[in-house]
Amino acid sequence: MEGFLGVRKGAWTEEEDNLLRQCVEKYGEGKWHQVPLRAGLNRCRKSCRLRWLNYLKPSIKRGGFTADEVDLIIRLHKLLGNRWSLIAGRLPGRTANDVKNNWNSHIHKRVVSCKEEVKGKAKQITKINVIRPRPLTFKKNVSWSINPSPKMVNIEVQLGHGDNDSNHSALTVPSNEDDILLWKDLLNGKESITVAQELKGPTTTFMAEENAPWTKTGDHFFDDMHGCWGDLSFDVDLWNFSNQNTKL
DNA sequence: AACTCCCCCAACCGCGAACAT
DNA sequence: CATGTTCGCGGTTGGGGGAGT
């Protein structure tokens, strides 16, 4: 089977597999546009990449999915939707294509029939609310106000996108139910939330209580002289946040 | 045995994101 | 910033082969 300009398509031969395997072993993974030439293959770069990632890569696990793997796929799909590469990333040795094929031909039918069993004759499948992990940081310039009694500081926290600096630490997953809801609001698109923190001493250091929805992040401090926070920034560990607090 | 149907999975395609110039 | 190139992902297709008749 030959395509435009004689580029081969369709099933791979053993000889082609060997050429591709030798090429990747010699030059490493990546730079796929160079692979057809380097390997001496009459295939397009996409075909080479796919063949390696889905079939030839030594770490790929062969054989049927175990019950544990199926269970994990169902849970992850509920959380992530059709984001096969993310799901496969949590299943060592399984490719996105494997997971997708398995879902479409086996698991999906099982899940649907289970739902129908549970819901009796209800045929409507509820829309999956997907929490999409994406890099988020909190803006440094938070607004704040101080209550004299009780001595509390209210801090407004805002989401930013991608303006990372190196002084972050991961956000501790909250255990308090109200805190979870509050932070979920933020992650679900709310522009800002307000949280309260007790003031500690004259030169206030912003400290986290145990199980608070954040951790102290390095050198941030309340600057009395300038009346502002020195450095206040957080990362949200979205994966663990979702994983631990989303009911599956 | 011959034929049809259907399932499974490897591979392709199109598109958006990321990167390079 | 604009444009071109490459990468990576998800949806879809099609052929091989097993099951059923």
UniProtKB/TrEMBL annotation:
Residues 8-56, 57-107 form the Myb-like domain. Residues 7-60, 61-111 form the HTH myb-type domain. Signal peptide: none annotated. One of its GO terms (molecular function) is DNA binding. GO terms for biological process: regulation of primary metabolic process. It is found in: Nucleus. It holds the Pfam family Myb_DNA-binding. It comes from the Eukaryota. SUPFAM superfamilies: Homeodomain-like. Keywords: Activator, DNA-binding, Nucleus, Repeat, Transcription, Transcription regulation. GO terms for cellular component: nucleus. InterPro entries: Homeodomain-like_sf, Myb_dom, Myb_TF_plants, SANT/Myb. This is Myb_DNA-binding domain-containing protein. It comes from Cephalotus follicularis.
